[in-house]
Design brief:
114 residues; Ubiquitin-like (UB roll); single chain; 2 helices; alpha+beta; globular
Amino acid sequence: MPQLTIEGVGSFEVPAGKRLVNALVDECGIDQLHACGGIARCTTCRVEFVAGEPATMRQAEQDVLAAKGLAGTPGLRLSCQIACDADMTVRATSRFAGSGRKDCGARPTDAMQP
């Protein structure tokens, strides 16, 4: 099982292939935002990679980061578009606490979308 380390929080074993956004909530207890429900529309599920950033990026993630003017920001990725298939270390920077939102958003499905 991959090891997911959240900077300042701890390290957790997560099921291989699980969506990072859901692993942050389920296994790590992070109050991760995901306002669009994990369909790569809003960027609220963003994280910053410290180590283990996946080399590939899904087209939906590329498109929304470009549209929001965030493309090319080192380490900035959308947790809804990443599968936990290797050890990784992230900063959970987009959290419910202090966001002013009414909730974290609809739970993303287990299957990657779109």
